[in-house]
Specification:
The protein has one helix and twelve strands, in the order αββββββββββββ. It is of the alpha+beta class and 170 residues long. The strands form three sheets. Strands 1, 3, 4, 6, 8, 9 and 11 form a seven-stranded antiparallel beta sheet that branches. Strands 10-7-12 form a three-stranded antiparallel beta sheet, with no helix packed on it. Strands 2-5 form a two-stranded antiparallel ribbon. β3 and β4 form a beta hairpin. The longest helix is centred in the first third of the chain and has 26 residues. It starts with a helix and ends with a strand.
Amino acid sequence: MMKRRLSALGLAAGLLLAGGTGEAAQSSRTVTANTGARIITAISITKLVDLEFKDIVPGAAAGTVVMSPAGVRTSTGGATLGTGVGSSPASFRVSGQPSARFAIVLPNSVAVSNGVQTMTVNTFRRAPGGAGNLGAGGAQTISVGATCRVAANQAGGTYTGNFNVTVTYN
């Protein structure tokens, strides 16, 4: 009797294990997915022309000189325009994957210095506005203007500095 009971229990356990394995095999499925990658041309940017405000005459009050991305130079407050010969917005050539869109990041502000005193250049603007587009040829030129903040009676001299323009694919 004991042998029979142990045999029946062993048979039942074997059926349960076999049944569980059979259900697991029937409830799983395998699917194959494809994988791939597309290698595109790296984005690059090259400076063509520097941002040049040129001659500014300071006054008894603070003022500004604005260079627009279109190359229009204006002044406000105590700053007046001297000769504008050679003034220009900055210009950059962006190259990369044809028809790709890209973001353009300009600085908030930078300092320019004559070695002793400084002025702030800020309110950077660009053309075209919005996202850039490399077009069918894989290139676009962008222009960058800004505002130069001139203190009252700003000391004379040649003020220089630099700024970064960053481009990244969208």
